[in-house]
């Protein structure tokens, strides 16, 4: 425990292990027993546990851990495309690539790493990738675990290309829940959304919190910085905070679609919900030499959370770019 004391030595709090394919994965720990595991395959967070050792992210029992296919669950990085709106494979190539660890990460803003164990992963296009998507970039993902167990993901995309390029981005986040019928998502009331089940038709959410009784696949537009997922049965609330990511995708495949997915159990739709901080409706345009940042902070706590608290968090986050991080 000594190395957690006065000055946080982030290198001492991380450990590199291998997955089934011999690909490195990084284990982050905090002194209270919380942990997170990030795979170099896809830069995917494959596990996030609280101090009690409970897994907070969903992973399918039928997930395949076979490179280059991404694993069903955790937090996937969707870049530079989301879904099938583009010429690339579904959700872009970042989730299928092998990333590398940056052994000497830049300091950035001290709030990002102070008191946290963190790792920086990098993705740069290979010659082969450039044939598919001819824009040179560097994608840096910093994943950090705070003393209170919060998990933060910060992605920076830098244009090292001679001309501007456009991209979409999402943190495709599979949260573990006890029973989807007992889950409520708060913060998306009255927003416009694209219904991905009806050719991205533009619709408007009603006044009530979101509940689930059938397949859902929606992109909520210009959503607030803070959204909450309440799991009544487990008495747990996830708070999702985001910056630089205007949209929120909510997905549950429900029964019929689950049966069509080879790497997903028939009943597993009951124990997951995807709520993704994303930039989808308006592609990000990045000029040469410029950098874009998209941040996500996940908190998992006891269900004492109420709508007024969410309102207050959003009110405070509204005019401040640095409030959340
Ligand atoms: O099966 P995948 O390619 O991982 O995609 C899983 C899901 O991701 C997102 O939630 C999309 O909105 C859905 O349309 C898609 O079905």
Automatic annotation (TrEMBL):
InterPro entries: Aldose_1/G6P_1-epimerase, G6P_1-epimerase, Gal_mutarotase_sf_dom, GH-type_carb-bd. GO terms for biological process: carbohydrate metabolic process. It is an enzyme of class 5 (isomerase). It comes from the Eukaryota. Substrate binds at residues 72, 90, 95. Keywords: Isomerase. It catalyses: alpha-D-glucose 6-phosphate = beta-D-glucose 6-phosphate. The keyword Isomerase applies. One of its GO terms (cellular component) is cytoplasm. PANTHER family: APOSPORY-ASSOCIATED PROTEIN C-RELATED (PTHR11122), GLUCOSE-6-PHOSPHATE 1-EPIMERASE (PTHR11122:SF52). Belongs to the glucose-6-phosphate 1-epimerase family. This is glucose-6-phosphate 1-epimerase. It comes from Raphanus sativus. The gene is LOC108863033.
């Amino acid at each position: 425990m000594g190395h957690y004391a006065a000055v946080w030595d982030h290198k001492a709090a991380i450990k590199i292990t291998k997955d089934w394919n011999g690909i490195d994965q990084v284990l982050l720990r905090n002194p209270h027993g919380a942990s997170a595991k990030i795979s170099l395959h896809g830069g995917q967070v494959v596990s996030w546990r609280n101090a009690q050792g409970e897994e907070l992210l969903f992973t399918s029992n039928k997930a395949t851990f076979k490179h280059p296919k991404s694993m069903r669950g955790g937090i996937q990085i969707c870049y530079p495309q989301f879904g099938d709106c583009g010429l690339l494979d579904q959700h872009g190539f970042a989730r299928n690539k092998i990333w590398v660890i940056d052994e000497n990460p830049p300091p950035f803003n001290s709030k990002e790493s102070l008191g946290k164990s963190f790792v920086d992963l990098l993705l740069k296009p290979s010659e082969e990738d450039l044939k598919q998507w001819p824009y040179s970039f560097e994608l840096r993902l910093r994943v950090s675990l705070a003393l209170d167990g919060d998990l933060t993901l910060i992605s920076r995309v830098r244009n090292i290309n001679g001309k501007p390029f456009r991209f979409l981005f999402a943190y495709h986040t599979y949260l573990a829940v006890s029973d989807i019928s007992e889950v409520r998502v708060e913060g998306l009331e009255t927003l416009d959304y694209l219904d991905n089940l009806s050719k991205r038709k533009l619709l408007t959410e009603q006044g009530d919190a979101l509940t689930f009784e059938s397949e859902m696949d929606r992109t909520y537009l210009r959503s607030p910085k803070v959204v909450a997922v309440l799991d009544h049965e487990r008495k747990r609330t996830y708070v999702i905070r985001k910056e630089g990511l205007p949209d929120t995708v909510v997905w549950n495949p429900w029964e019929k679609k689950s049966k069509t997915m080879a790497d997903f159990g028939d009943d597993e739709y009951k124990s997951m919900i995807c709520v993704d901080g994303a930039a989808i409706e308006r592609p990000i345009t990045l000029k040469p030499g410029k950098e874009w940042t998209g941040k996500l902070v996940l908190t998992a706590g006891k269900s004492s959370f109420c709508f007024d608290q969410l309102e207050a968090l959003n009110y405070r986050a509204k005019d401040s770019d640095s409030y959340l991080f």
